[in-house]
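job 3f2a | input accepted
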Amino acid sequence: MNSTRLDWQGVEVLERSEEFDGDGLREMVRRHGGEGELVVVFWGNHAVPPVALEAEVMAAHAEMVVGSCYECWLYFTDSRVLIEFQDGEGFVAARVPN
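job 3f2a | predicted structure (98 res):
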């Protein structure tokens, strides 16, 4: 299918959202990111390097994140939460298994 979507079967899905805008991402980042926690953004366009920002900064720039790509993944380094973004389809947040 030439898709980069993740298979969420067998993992602890924390939240699904049909929103796919900056406000939706901002709220998810605030719910799942701890104070001072680093969030690494991996872009669907692999020509753009990953970026690591504190969760608060990532939340402040949520519009830029969703406005600059069709898909991306945000990994929270302390809580091991991964948010997948697919434009037009929303967000999925899940805990990365050990």
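job 3f2a | The chain is about 25% helix and 35% strand.
job 3f2a | closed
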